[in-house]
Amino acid sequence: MSVAVVGSVAFDSITSPSGSVENILGGAATYFSLAASYFTKVRVVAVVGEDFTPAQENVFKKHGIDTRGIERAKGKTFRWGGQYLDNLNEAKTDFTELNVFQSFQPRIPKEYEDTQFLFLANIQPTLQADVRRKLNRVCLTGCDTMNFWIRGAREELLQTLKLVDVLLINDTEAKMLAAESNLPRAAQKVLAMGPQALVIKHGEYGATIFFREGAFGIGHHPFRAPALPIEEVVDPTGAGDSFAGGFMGYIASQGEVSREVLKRALFYGGVMGSFAVERFGTERLESLTREEIDARFQIFRELTHLE
Amino acid sequence: MSVAVVGSVAFDSITSPSGSVENILGGAATYFSLAASYFTKVRVVAVVGEDFTPAQENVFKKHGIDTRGIERAKGKTFRWGGQYLDNLNEAKTDFTELNVFQSFQPRIPKEYEDTQFLFLANIQPTLQADVRRKLNRVCLTGCDTMNFWIRGAREELLQTLKLVDVLLINDTEAKMLAAESNLPRAAQKVLAMGPQALVIKHGEYGATIFFREGAFGIGHHPFRAPALPIEEVVDPTGAGDSFAGGFMGYIASQGEVSREVLKRALFYGGVMGSFAVERFGTERLESLTREEIDARFQIFRELTHLE
Fold first, then answer.
1. In chain B, whose CA is at the least distance from the CA of A302?
2. CA distance linking residue A293 with residue A275, whole number of Å
């Protein structure tokens, strides 16, 4: 099965302890698509400006990603600049130029209408809900959000969460959304808002999936997949979106949601996130092989496997 | 096999979001002993003042812990006061009264001389080394330390690390000791200082053990055990020492160091740490059963187990 994603395509300018890059291809939909493309066919819904080049579109096309949902608008593509200084887990934003993203109204190509697996990357919650409602053959919806919407568009977000099957956020966002500092209890509060399952991403420590009682008919014990930075962390940008791409891409490739599929999906999420951070931007995600991915899956599996 | 521990016995005054307690029994050697006592016989080397009561000694004795190494000195027992406010992972120290601990010179009872498993809790590194040298039948030495010694007694600490088999510290301490922010590379640098193995504790995310090439003849791939706060975190004090108690206690109970024993020991460490934080002070550690411990071991095992 294919997976569709709606989110940003951006040009990023990034400084980290490893160096600096300017105006490189980025954005949540980009990282997600590339990561998911190693598992299944991917469809993108996004908007770019007149400065988006055929060479940049080719980054998607080379991975068999369907770009018919990338709308060309008048103006410039969304730009973001940020720095990772002492703390590689947190970016200091230098600038955000929304440009064509400011008036983004996602348009779904006719060819995407049979989409069954959907990921709503981090955009305004009402737009997320609109996309979900337009695609009425979807059987599993994943969703991301951030502190900006949790604080500033809480009511809209709560409406969106009712349409979502799996929410993927980090520890800080989960605790903020639930107003609760104990992780398992925060998870239960978020699950009561709508999702069947909640994936909480712990950065270099991996991720935990919590289930609602009876979710997917598979019981409610949580499951955790580890992660480990294998190489140097060069650029953390896009780690979460790459995680989501591995997670959703693997589920879509299996075409069914069982406990074992979700467990393996969580491992693949950690694997894709760990690759993404090894180079600036999408460089590492562009050059992977499925063999490298499965080799790292085995490393992460053995990392916690008791006889 | 029994395990001996040298470290502090203290009276703690603690404030957390769950409430406040004053002058309750604490200290690294106390938490370690109680946690380890569920796995094997424990011997304590520590110093207390004239204010240490038979009722307090009974907390140890009820768990079969050998207290002949607890020296009574003139003066008051070590006292510590601290608060956990927004961040349950970090205590703000209100006061530290070293009292009899200031001139602590560990004395090893004759009956402890055949000790084969030893844990050097967080005390001045030269004292740690002295204890290790006095016990010449030890086959496995575990060791803890903290930022205070890493910064303030680095040379002494480096001498001690040459005598240590397994160092147990947290992420921040490992990165500080190695002057390296990437966790696996920090681990390799610390292992080059002497220990065969390094356990890095990640708080609520569990712990990872890294091995030197050829350590214990069991290969060098790292292993991670997860953790998860099951109940409310009431008081994080002693979590790391309880982790060490479960880890060392389990190893001593097996009497041998294999890869599988170390993996299980890491899980038991996480289990004992997760119990310790559920009540103030040692309350939860005093009232456990081995059945409760093994039930939580299974929960943590299933938390990451892929078919």
1. B223
2. 9
Q: Which residues on A lie below 8 Å from B260 (Cβ)?
A: 306-307
How far CA A109 is from CA of A41, A60, A112, A302, B243, in Å, comes to 16, 17, 5, 42, 55
Superfamily of domain B3-301: Ribokinase (3.40.1190.20)
A19-26: strand order across its sheet: A19-26, A10-16, A79-83, A92-97
Determine which of B230, B298, B304 to mutate to test the interface with A (most A C-beta atoms within 10 Å).
B304
Question: Quick one: closest CA in A to B205, which residue?
Answer: A205
Q: What is the pTM of this model?
A: 0.92
Beta bridge partners of B11: B25, B79
A266-283 in b/e form (b: 16+ CB < 10 A) is bbbbbbbbbbbbbbbbbe
| Option in B184, B224, B230 nearest A229 (CB) | B184
What is the Cα–Cα distance from B140 to B117, expressed in whole angstroms? 5
Cβ–Cβ < 8 Å for B233, B278: yes
B-chain CB neighbours of A302 within 8 Å are 221, 223
A44-48, A140-144, A285-289, B204-208: lowest mean pLDDT where? B204-208
Residue A236 to residue A86: CA distance in whole angstroms:
13
Q: How far apart are CA B268 and CA B13, in angstroms?
A: 28
Position A3 confidence tier, pLDDT thresholds 50, 70, 90: very high
In terms of CA atoms, which chain B residue is nearest residue A201? B205
Q: What's the rounded mean pLDDT across residues B11-33?
A: 97
Q: Residues B186-192: what's their mean pLDDT?
A: 96
For residue B170 the two structure tokens come to: 């947290």
Tokens read off for B239: 């979590």
| pLDDT the model gives residue A215 | 84
Interface predicted TM-score of the whole assembly (ipTM), two decimals = 0.86
Task: Report the percentage of chain A scoring pLDDT > 70.
Answer: 100
Mean pLDDT in residue range B275-297: 96
- Is A219 a residue whose pLDDT tops 80? no
Which one of A229, A301, A305 has the shortest CB-CB distance to B183?
Answer: A229
Contact A306 B184 (CB under 8 A): no
Which residue in the block uniquely carries the two structure tokens 């009876």?
Answer: A214
**Minimal C-alpha gap between A269 and chain B (Å):** 14
Cβ atoms of B32 and B121 within 8 Å: the answer is yes
The minimal CB distance from A304 to the residues B224, B230, B307 is found for B224
DSSP state of B27: -
Q: Which residue has the tokens 């085995």?
A: A298
What tokens does A63 get?
């991975």
For the domain with range A3-304, which CATH number is right: 3.40.50.450, 3.40.50.720, 3.40.50.300, 3.40.1190.20?
3.40.1190.20
The burial of A200, by beta-carbon neighbours within 10 Å (0-12 exposed, 13-18 middle, 19 or more buried), is given as buried
The confidence score (pLDDT) of residue A112 equals 97
Is residue B85's pLDDT more than 90? no
Over residues B167-187, the pLDDT tens digits come to: 999 999 999 999 998 889 999
The pLDDT score that the predictor gives to residue B78 is 97
For residue A225, pLDDT beyond 80? yes
Span A242-255, average pLDDT: 97
